[in-house]
Amino acid sequence: MACSPRLHKLQPRTWAWTLCLIIALTSPAFAQPLAGAAADDEVIRSLCRKVGRKLNSVSYSECLRAGLKPTGAVSVKGGPIVARDFLPPSGVTPRARVLLIGGIHGDEFSSVSVVFKWIAKLAKNRSNEFHFRIAPLVNPDGLLRKRSQRMNANGVDLNRNFPCPEWFRSTQDYWVRRTSRNPRRYPGPAPLSEPESRWLVNEIFSFDPQVIISVHAPFSVVDFDGPNQPPDRLGSLYLKLLGTYPGSLGRYAGTRLSTPVLTIEFKSAGIMPSAAEQRNIWRDLIHWLGKYTEEAQITAASAAVEEDEEAVEIGGGGG
Ligand SMILES: [Zn+2]
After folding, report:
1. N or C: which end of the chain has fewer CB within 10 A?
2. Distance (Å) from CA 136 to ligand 1 centroid
3. Which residue range forms the structural domain that includes residue 199?
4. The CATH number of the domain where 115 resides is what?
5. Are 264 and 220 in contact (CB under 8 A)?
């Protein structure tokens, strides 16, 4: 796997980047008219009513208190994709930009509920050092339908819909041969065919996160794709490198773009981790983010020094 040691690649270099930009930025999902504050409030209230009815662990009022805002992107059925930013206290430079997402698979309830708990924690925390962008339910149609499902409203597994150069060959092939056309793993008709995955790719370009954290269930592990060192464990969840699937976020962002993707898999999709476990995972996550950021900066700095030395050598030889 060709993973760059740099913290993040800034320049698009492949057709995949270009394709993503074109599709993501011209998508109708981002052409929504700007709504006023009152309209936004109604969007959030309506969403929170549905979330409160669906999730035992997140009430209507807790959802409202999360302070989420519509991003302007909407799902296949027009459900809002919502997010909230948290910054360090004013005057403090964030150590890194971190994109935290839950519920890309709509039937993994705990992956949405716990992200709401972490939002509440961050809202009280006055010493946060990172710029977090948090989207607790990336697949609102999958979660909020009568019988929640992994896929979005088009029956697409969003975590197989991300672009990689070999998408048409390997993603479809993998689905047909390895999953026997399992509908829960359907990657869609084309990369980025879905508005929810387009939103996420757009965020990867516009927010430019240095770390992406994607919350899932129920495999009870921590997984990691990308450069530098993953955490050994978060709470009671131990690191297990599972590898990536064609079209997955880990394959696209972690391997292709070298933007690290940390996947947290809770033990159960339907049962919340204990309050202590939620706290422990969060504590370990923040600790790792600090360490990771430092390590990535050192790696980037030493790569820059090496590049400079190489330039000097080339310059000297040419003289
Ligand atoms: Zn999942």
Report:
1. C
2. 13
3. 15-268
4. 3.40.630.10
5. no
Residues 33-59: pLDDT tens digits? 555 889 999 999 999 999 999 999 999
* Residue 70 preceded by cis peptide, ω within 30: no
Core vs surface per residue 133-152: b (16+ CB within 10 A) or e = bbbbbbbbbbbbbeebbbbb
Expressed in angstroms and rounded, the spacing between residue 266 Cα and the centre of ligand 1 is 10
302 occurs within a structural domain? no
pTM of the model: 0.86
* Structural domains of the chain, count: 1
Q: Answer for the pair 249, 213: CB distance below 8 angstroms, yes or no.
A: no
CA 257 to chain centroid, in Å, comes to 14
Range of weakest confidence among 14-23, 73-82, 178-187, 218-227: 14-23
Asked if residue 284 belongs to a domain, the reply is no
- For residue 293, the CA-to-ligand 1 centroid distance in Å is 26
Which structure tokens are listed for 132?
A: 């977090």
In a domain, 301, yes or no: no
User: Is position 85 within any domain?
Assistant: yes
* Å from CA of 89 to ligand 1 middle: 33
**CA 307 – ligand 1 centroid, Å:** 40
Mean pLDDT of 136-161: 98
Q: Is the pLDDT of residue 108 over 70?
A: yes
* Nearest one of 62, 142, 64 to 108, comparing CA atoms: 142
CA 107 to centroid of ligand 1, rounded, Å? 8
**187, burial (CB in 10 Å: exposed 0-12, middle 13-18, buried 19+):** buried
For 231-244, b where at least 16 C-beta lie within 10 A, e where not — what string?
A: beebbebeeeeeeb
Rounded to the nearest angstrom, the distance between the alpha carbon of 111 and the centre of ligand 1 is: 8
- Token pair 């040419």 is at which residue? 318
